[in-house]
Amino acid sequence: MKKALLASLLLVLAGCSPSSSHDKLVKTLKTVQSWTATARMVGETWQQGSIPDLYAQQTLEKIQQEIAKETKDLTGSPALPRQIYQLQQTLQQMTAAVKQHRKAEIATPLVQLATEQQQLETLLKAQGDRP
Amino acid sequence: MNKIREIALGIVTSIGGFLDVGAIATAAEAGSSFEFQLIWTIVLGTICVIALVEMSGRLAAVSKHTLADAVRERLGFNFFIFPLIAEVIVDFLVLGAEIGGVCIALQLVTGISFQWWALPVAFAIWLLLWKGNFSLIENGISFLGLITLAFVVATFKLRPALPAVAEGLLPTVPQQDTAHYLFIAVSILGALISPYLFYFYSSGAVEDKWDKSHLGVNRAVAGLGMGFGSVVSLGVLIVAAQVLHPRGIHVDSYEQAALMLTQPFGYWGFVLFAASLGIACFGAALEVSLDTAYILAQAFGWNWGESLHPKEAARFSFVYTVFVFLASLLMVVGIDPLQLTLFSMALTAVILPLTIIPFLVLMNDRSYVGDHCNGWISNSITIFTIVLTFVLAIVAIPLEVLGG
Description:
The complex is a heterodimer of chains A (about 130) and B (about 400).
Chain A: H1 2-16, H2 21-47, H3 53-70, H4 80-99, H5 107-129
Chain B: H1 2-18, H2 21-34, H3 39-63, H4 67-75, H5 77-110, H6 114-131, H7 134-144, H8 150-158, H9 162-167, H10 178-192, H11 195-207, H12 215-243, H13 254-257, H14 262-265, H15 267-300, H16 314-332, H17 337-362, H18 366-369, H19 376-403
Helix pairs in contact in B: 1-7, 1-12, 2-10, 2-12, 2-17, 3-10, 3-11, 3-12, 3-19, 4-5, 5-6, 5-15, 5-16, 5-17, 6-15, 6-16, 7-15, 8-12, 10-17, 10-19, 11-15, 15-16, 17-19
């Protein structure tokens, strides 16, 4: 009885866990996309004066760390490392604008971030459509 | 007139004290990831919690026993040791998460990392427990907790599509991210049906010297207080669904959740989120610390009572003193508060059957509740909750691995 239970539990685990590199890539992309969306909202709300400078700066720095951590061992999409690099550059520009409290300077990286978010979405869609 | 005042006070404190770190984290994650689809779990959990809180209060009012006392006496220490150990372990993790919630709120406002706040927050909790009395903790902090109604106001301001919200009342399973969906469902139920709530509520009823004349107050506080309280949880879920979900933000950290009130309230939304998180978690941290001291003191027959001077209940005071500082160390070492919250909510689900099964025995035992035994509705809800908690206990850890 115990063995049967254990076996079925293992089967469920094996069946549901993101075992393939494709599944892992999709999971990573979703996380990166969520952090990118967060960065965009942080940038926009900071521009409107709805959040404190320190919170905006620390959150943007955290987002860079999270994206770096998430994409450290990423394989499976040749275009992705370049996209992530661009994304990190944009986030750095946003952080610099917040640090210097120059609200006008965040507008350009925000537009750039929106484009990058779109690209990630397209990539995710393409990965999601794959069998 | 006095009873009406007691009912009003009880309802207000239940609303103000309903939200804690688990409810905020799980509802925010549910709304941001699955829009309105998990509303049914909050409604289901609330029905169970109303019934069980009412029973805890009825048991205390009629038998003058706290839940822990009654379980130990009726089912024996050899049985009670299991829920006791389980509850102490879960309380420890939940307390760490609640302290983490307060620390994150302070980090949001000051920019100083949450780890640095852990010991000062623990000291503040301990000081209030040491110097304060039960009434101050029950009423004072819960009154401050009314600030969490900001989520309800935000819900009205955001005008969600009512048919979509109503659809969330029906349980559905999505085709994508099923494991994560089920994990969040289990965590929401774990956060709502908190064992500490039942032990704490019955201990509070004994501290407040409830008798049979309080049965009406108990029913009103449990039903209306918990019912309205859950509206705040629904508010968090709906606001997250309206503000974060359309932008593609899934809450993986409190920094993301902190943005959810900025859309309806601007800068004050950020302040309100931090204040709600901080006050709700501070109140819950006081309750969890007391709960641990209550159940240990009641298990071993020590003097207990928050309204007693620490000298008169030395071991009781010693327990919460040690417990608060040990739990704060979880934050000092830098454990992620949100991950700890979700993990402790899933673990809460695992231990639930041990807490809920005794209700069925005690609430049908005339030597404890006399003529106020459970009717068929209460028994049906208890049996349903027991079955539900068994399912949750079995699936919680595998889902934590797969979807957490």
